[in-house]
Amino acid sequence: MDEDTNVDVIVIGAGPAGENVAGRCADAGLAVAVVERELVGGECSYWGCIPSKTLIRPGEVLAAARRVPGAVSAVIGTADAVAAFARRDWMVSDYSDESQVPWLTDKGVELVRGVGRLTGRPREVEVTAADGARRLLRASRAVVVATGTRATIPPIPGLADAQPWDNRTATGAHTVPRRLVVLGGGAVGAELAQAFRRLGSEKVTLVEGSPRLLAREEEFAGEQVAVSFAADGITVLVGTRVSEVRRARTDVDQPLGPVTVTLDRGHRPAGTDVNTSAAADGEAPTSLEADEILVAAGRTPATAELGLAAFGLRPDGFIEVDDQLRAVGVADGWLYAVGDVNGRALLTHMGKYQARIAADVITGRRDPAGQAARDVADGSAVPRVTFTDPQVSAVGLTERAARAAGLSVRAVSVATGGVAGASVRGEGTAGTSMIVVDEARRVLVGATFTGPDTQELVHAATVAIVGEVPLERLWHAVPSFPTVSEVWLRLLEEYGL
């Protein structure tokens, strides 16, 4: 070993979750070391949230302008993909973490570059640097795993050999493929399909195995996004699986050729009526040809190299944790997992939330009422936004999920565009706003908003759910006029208040 280091806390992974647990522990006076194999800031900063939303923004702005009389005449061109890519490069600091590192070091956190692995002994991590040098870190209190996830590449024949795009390839692209096939109709697939179509891809086809887009959200959300995609010229194939992928390439020294994607339209999810916007004549294709294929079919935990076998691991690779983010089954409770790696809620903001809780548990911090930290919101009030047009912004349970959980609920909905504030923003502001009410307690357990810029509505719903605000009190939260937030008033009126 080149060097041994003793600290209070070791954090493996310097993405948003890792940064936050390290910083909060350091603020409490603990000695902290963070191990990072790539870039401080992690997946979200360089290959996920930040670059994808940057690439989405040009098309979003142009679409918004086209809805506004007096502005639409100024929209005389299309999105400038070269400028969008340049902006993306600036937003990710040209893939340098030089500006992010001081956030850690200024708090006294030691950054250790390399691959971290648990040795099998309690609170001990071995780090292997890029040059092969090894270093042993020992923690007196805790080791926190915050290594996140990577894109899942399904075992479809020929797919891996076809060199598919994943979220990293797509968000880091410098050219717009003329033809793009996207596998997966969740948030990542839907966002990037629309982003590249609006950046200039001539033909974008999205293939989803379930009967609708955004299958985990309210049904109307995926339906409305599909309508918008059709208007954008994006082909959506639901209830469809890919059986084979082939990439043409004549010589290893030559550029990659086109991709041929063979479809299995015989797949029909049980109890569903699968429709497709495949072709004007109603005939669904049996194969597709594209210049690139983007895989957005889920995430795999980045745990394979961590040495977790000695401490137990879920079959799916995620680390099971308790309500204080401690890894289940590890003696003395010294091992923690925060963020995507524990599989609870694969969202950056939830990882940061978990990081604060874990840090408070590790440091023994208590709230002003003297209560110890406890994770209470990871399953019941998870806010999420899909940045398509229309946006899909939601928090808590869908109506279906609430009923499946045994709750007696009532869902009410109104048109998002049915308030004056929406009309001010432009014509054709479509979308739906819905709340799901637990009838026994008369509090919200879920809310969904679709339409332009609905991300700014979801936090109010989050506060209402987390705070368990009775509807009778929520009635007195008066929305400003003329804002889209007036949908809250309309929803409560629709409920009967």
Summarize the structure.
The protein is an alpha/beta fold and 497 residues long. The chain contains 14 helices and 21 strands.
Structure, explained:
- The protein is an alpha/beta fold and 497 residues long.
- The protein has three domains: 3-41 and 97-150 and 300-363, 3-Layer(bba) Sandwich (FAD/NAD(P)-binding domain), CATH 3.50.50.60; 160-297, 3-Layer(bba) Sandwich (FAD/NAD(P)-binding domain); 390-495, Enolase-like, domain 1 (2-Layer Sandwich).
- Helix content is 27%, strand content 24%.
- It has 14 helices and 21 strands.
- It has helices at 16-27, 42-46, 49-66, 81-91, 101-105, 167-171, 187-199, 219-232, 348-363, 399-404, 420-425, 458-466, 471-474, 487-495; strands spanning 3-12, 32-36, 110-113, 115-118, 124-128, 134-145, 149-151, 179-183, 203-207, 234-237, 241-247, 259-264, 287-290, 292-295, 299-301, 335-337, 383-386, 391-396, 409-415, 432-438, 443-451.
- α1 runs parallel beside α9, α3 (49-66) crosses α4 (81-91) and α3 packs across α7 (187-199).
- The longest helix is centred in the N-terminal third of the chain and has 18 residues, at 49-66.
- The relative contact order is 0.12.
